[in-house]
Design a protein that fits this description.
The protein is mainly α. Helices cover about 80% and strands about 0% of the residues.
Length: about 80
């Protein structure tokens, strides 16, 4: 979350500099940084709320509660 907030802050600084200097390239850079922050936030939300992750957490909690250890077959 700190990375996302810092990316948005940097994008806002770039866009403010773009309006002060009347430069389109800085505005474009600010939009690209902001879209990178949105993409990172989207990936984080998908990762943290995916059904596979939730199932894995539930399985780990069940195993911890039962005190069962996973035994691998010996070769």
């Amino acid at each position: 979350m700190v990375v996302i907030v810092s990316l948005v802050a940097w994008a806002l600084q770039l866009m403010q500099a773009a309006t002060d200097r009347q430069e389109f390239s800085l505005m474009l850079a600010g939009c690209m940084v902001c879209s990178a922050a949105v993409g990172l936030a989207t990936v984080m939300v998908i990762t943290f709320t995916s059904p596979a992750r939730l199932d894995a957490q539930g399985l780990a909690l069940l195993q911890a509660a039962a005190g069962a250890a996973v035994e691998l077959p010996s070769l």
